[in-house]
Amino acid sequence: MNHAILLPGLAMAALTFVVWWAMYFQRIGQMKRERIHPQAVATSIQAAARLTESNRADNFRNLFELPVLFYFALTVAHLSGQVNAATLALAWLFVALRVVHSAIHCTYNKVMHRFYAYLAGGLALWALWGVLGYGLLRG
What we know:
Mean pLDDT: 96
GO cellular component, one term: membrane
Subcellular location: Membrane
Number of domains: 1
Number of helices: 6
Radius of gyration: 18 Å
Protein name: Membrane protein
Pfam families: MAPEG
Largest sheet: none
Keywords: Membrane, Transmembrane, Transmembrane helix
């Protein structure tokens, strides 16, 4: 089986780790600057009230929404022998658009820019599933 389809998954995992670190430093930084005791943000309600710098945490959570379907699509492509130029291109396109989305979300966070990256990534993912579905039904 062709393992090339697993590389976009590795790239998405790397993106998730990068955003996790960015979130960690953002939260710890705010807690130190504002002298927020860790126990003061023990629950999600407390954290939402005290931790106002949340764009990186929001992006981190977002990396566990659509990407779940992406990881499964890679698994389906790998196991069903549908690793080809189309599935690889769509997988890498999704990763590239998620990198753009995360970069926007974790920095200047302009909603419409972020939305367009998110939408384009979602369309790439649905196209990937369309290719996989066609291959499975045809096969």
